[in-house]
């Protein structure tokens, strides 16, 4: 299990590891996924460590609200308005980094509409 001291997303959120940050809010940071599965694939992560979305909703619901707001704002900015916001919780669901993170994905970037 990942701890805060060796968590890659904690290091990104705290500025200890480089990433392509695109936005920040009071409780969260957002950056481009390094292994995108769609033309738009943004990760939104809390600055505080929580293993998964179930833990986050029970411990810090205000952080979850902030995460969803930041994610939907970014989806509006970068997509045509059609997007997914997903959370993987547990290895069987595909979670590979055990710091809660929302995936904002979309097939069509706003600048490709025309």
Task: Note down, in words, how this protein is organized.
The chain has helices spanning 8-13, 53-59, 61-78; strands at residues 21-24, 28-32, 40-46, 84-86, 102-106. By secondary structure, the protein is of the alpha+beta class. The chain has one domain (4-112): HIT family, subunit A. It has a five-stranded antiparallel sheet. Helix 2 packs across helix 3. It is globular. The protein starts with 7 loop residues before the first helix and ends in an 8-residue tail after the last strand. The model has no long low-confidence stretch (mean pLDDT 93).
Summarize, please.
This protein is an alpha+beta fold. It is built from 3 helices and 5 strands; from the N terminus they run αβββααββ.
Percentage of residues assigned to helices: 25-40%
Give the oligomeric state. Answer: single chain
Tell me the radius of gyration. 14 Å
What is the tally of helical segments? 3
* Percentage of β-strand residues: 15-25%
The level 1 CATH classification is Alpha Beta
Number of strands: 5
The CATH topology comes to HIT family, subunit A
3D shape: globular
Kindly report the spatial arrangement of strands forming the biggest sheet: 1-2-3-5-4
Provide the CATH architecture: 2-Layer Sandwich
Distance between the termini: 46 Å
H/E topology pattern? HEEEHHEE
User: Main sheet, how many strands, which sense, barrel?
Assistant: 5 strands, antiparallel
Q: Output mean pLDDT.
A: 93
Q: What is the CATH superfamily label?
A: HIT-like
Q: Structural class of the helices, strands and pairings?
A: alpha+beta
- List unreliable stretches of 5+ residues: none
How many domain modules?
A: 1
């Amino acid at each position: 299990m990942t701890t805060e001291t060796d968590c890659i997303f904690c290091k990104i959120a705290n500025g200890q590891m480089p990433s392509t940050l695109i936005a920040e809010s009071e409780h969260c940071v957002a950056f481009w996924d390094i292994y995108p599965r769609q033309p738009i694939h943004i990760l939104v992560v809390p600055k505080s460590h929580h293993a998964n979305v179930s833990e986050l909703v029970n411990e810090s619901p205000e952080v979850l609200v902030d995460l969803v707001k930041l994610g939907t704002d970014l989806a509006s900015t970068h997509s045509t308005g059609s997007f997914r916001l997903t959370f993987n919780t547990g290895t069987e669901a595909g979670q590979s980094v055990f710091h809660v993170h929302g995936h904002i994905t979309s097939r069509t970037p706003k600048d490709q509409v025309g």
